[in-house]
Amino acid sequence: MLITSRDNSLLRQARAVRDGKADHEIFVEGLRLCEEAFMSGLQIEAVIYSEEIVQKDRAAGLIAKINEFSTAKSAAVSEKLLASVSYTTTPQGIVLIARRPAHDESSFAAKQPRTPLIVVLHELNNPVNVGAILRAAEGAGVTGVIATLKTADPFSPKSLRGAMGSAFRMPVWTGMTFEQVIDWCRASKIRTVCADASGSRLYTEVDWAESAALIVGPESEGLALAELSAADESVRIPMQGATESLNVAVAAGIILFEAARQRAPK
């Protein structure tokens, strides 16, 4: 199908999803990320692509597979029309509208192994950090990510770009309060460990081979005292020089890969 009007219903739908106005759909842009979405088994509802990109073998192959293996709507548009939909300043040539992956408690819990390693993102407001942590989490063998209320949406376009496909594969649970997460971890016998610049122990001193949940807090102020007290313990990364703390995504990555080191088969 060729679309020539900016007011086309499919383009209106794409803009609504892009702007976060559709609860059950996500906006995926760019060839590599669209490939990741398709290979991860997301339910694709529509593919919109420029007339120029379909001339490239890699893009044409992806579009052909989507058309063959899904019931997605498929539409070609001009570069100008794609720009009216694109999340980025420069259109990436292809956009998918897909069903949001399951992000409820039951789906999340069902995917947890006997000894889970979970990351809790509490009120992180920067979607770039959320995406970066998701990417590091998958690389470190994390078994699931929980994003509390007021945390940037892990499935927003900017978070998805930072995660580079990890959000499609990682079990994610959203919408809980901090207190509800703590209660769930306690009921599930998962030790809760906060990352804090003044933590009582070094991050290397924790036994990450046991069931554990690493909790990271807001970029500007970190976790509140009451939140630190509610968890089982807090850990710090030793710092040198005048630097007091690290970017939350960097800190999470350091701790998670220590956990991965400890959990690796001996």
How would you describe the overall organization of this protein?
The protein has 266 residues and is of the alpha/beta class. It has two domains: 9-99, Ribosomal protein L30/S12 (60s Ribosomal Protein L30, Chain: A); 105-263, SPOUT methyltransferase, trefoil knot domain (Alpha/beta knot, 3-Layer(aba) Sandwich), CATH 3.40.1280. The protein is built from eleven helices and eleven strands. The strands form two sheets. A seven-stranded parallel β-sheet has the order 7-6-5-10-8-11-9, sandwiched between helices. A four-stranded mixed β-sheet has the order 1-4-2-3, sandwiched between helices. α6 links the parallel β5 and β6. The model has no long low-confidence stretch (mean pLDDT 95).
Give me some keywords for this one:
alpha/beta; four-stranded mixed sheet; 11 strands; 11 helices; seven-stranded parallel sheet; 60s Ribosomal Protein L30, Chain: A; elongated; Alpha/beta knot; 266 residues
